[in-house]
Design a protein that fits this description.
ten-stranded antiparallel beta sheet; 177 residues; 12 strands; mainly beta
Length: 177
């Protein structure tokens, strides 16, 4: 079985590299592109064997006047699995998020977001998730907003936590600090 905890079981260092390139910045246009590479040494134990976790990805955003479009894609790869576990375990995963926000007045924002996850893990338990979300926000102050959000599962519906709904409507209050 896999175990991890609040303490790091390794004595090694986990190297990572992040980079960011900003562009634009004039005529109401700006954006950025970022990259991430992370190597987690001995991040967990499967049986008596330590495993490593490799993550890499890209993110970016483009802003033009009152429109902000951004997204990220991240890939994961686990290595060092025992042979007895490897056949029953998908050691790769991927997540993608794309969102567009449009400020339609000084107090109202509409957003459209798509999330896609190709889960890893034990083959008998894993499932992919695909969700499309529409949101409306009313800002009462800079750091205080009311929202109404509708998230629709555009993939398979099942008992798996990534798939166990068809439509989720939420209303609430956001505080930003």
């Amino acid at each position: 079985s896999g175990t991890s905890g609040t303490s790091d079981i390794n004595e090694k260092k986990d190297p990572y590299l992040m980079t960011r390139l900003n562009f634009g910045g004039s005529n109401y246009f700006s954006g950025s592109v970022s990259g991430l590479v992370y190597w987690g040494n001995d991040t967990a134990k499967v049986g008596d064997q330590l495993i490593d976790w490799f993550r890499y990805g890209f993110a970016g955003n483009v802003k033009y006047k009152l429109l902000d479009i951004y997204g990220a894609v991240i890939w994961d790869k686990i290595s060092g699995l025992p042979e007895s576990t490897a056949a029953a375990f998908d050691d790769t995963a991927m997540g993608l998020t794309i969102e567009g926000d449009l400020l339609i007045t000084d107090q109202h924002l509409i957003a459209l977001r798509y999330d896609h996850m190709e889960a890893g893990g034990f083959n008998s338990q894993k499932a992919d998730g695909k969700v499309l979300t529409v949101q409306i926000r009313k800002y009462l102050r800079d750091n205080f907003a009311l929202f109404l959000r509708d998230s629709v599962n555009v993939g398979t519906v099942s008992e798996n936590p990534l798939q166990n709904f068809r439509n989720l409507v939420a209303a609430g209050i956001d505080f930003d600090f």
